[in-house]
Write a structure and sequence with these properties.
Strand content: over 45%
Number of helices: 0
Oligomer: single chain
Order of helices and strands: EEEEEEEEEEEEEEE
Number of strands: 15
Structural class: mainly beta
Distance between the termini: 32 Å
């Protein structure tokens, strides 16, 4: 994907590629796209965000991202990505990798994670999510550049295991489930 404004993809199914979807900046800016229902699976990287999204970023609802890495943000451009009722599966241990500056945000609500959330920069906000990892693995690894990692009403399986190399005030955990 290059510059596409307001692209809406419904019932999209992509499988068997090195990268399922690659999003990059073009001369006219970055893409902004919404995915509703479907899956990107059996890929090394299901979704590679090399652009940081456009004005509204990337939106996923009732969508499965399944790869060695489900969602990989590989840019330091401030960006936004929103996920609702999604399944993010990282077959090789990492489900989501977030980079970016202080305005780079990923929000997840009612999502299921299989694999570690790597927060190298920016903000990750999870509400009512289920996070599963192999025994002894981390649910989240926050690097020193992470701005905020917030977990509200999340369930960790097995017991919560988060590594935080950022300032301790940048990790927020509230066990109360949010009403939906």
């Amino acid at each position: 994907l290059e510059r596409v404004d307001g692209e809406a993809c419904m019932d999209t199914c992509i499988s068997g590629y090195k990268v399922g979807v690659e999003a990059y900046v073009s001369t006219n800016g970055g893409p902004s796209v919404s995915f509703y229902s479907g899956a990107i699976s059996n890929c090394v990287t299901a979704f590679l965000d090399g652009a940081g999204g456009g004005d509204t970023g990337f939106e996923f609802t009732r969508f499965t991202l399944d790869g060695d890495i489900a969602f990989d943000r590989s840019t330091n451009i401030d960006a936004a990505a929103f996920f609702h009722t999604c399944e993010l599966i990282g077959r090789n241990g990492t489900s989501v990798r977030q980079t970016g500056g202080s305005s780079s945000v990923m929000q997840f609500q009612n999502c299921d994670f299989t694999g570690t959330l790597k927060l190298d920069g920016g903000v990750a906000n999870l509400v009512n999510c289920n996070l599963s990892v192999a025994p002894g693995s981390n649910h989240c690894v926050m690097a020193s550049g992470a701005i905020i990692g917030a977990f509200t009403g999340c369930i960790f399986n097995p017991a919560r295991n988060i590594t935080n190399s950022a300032d301790s005030r940048r990790l927020i955990i509230d066990g109360r489930r949010a009403s939906t």
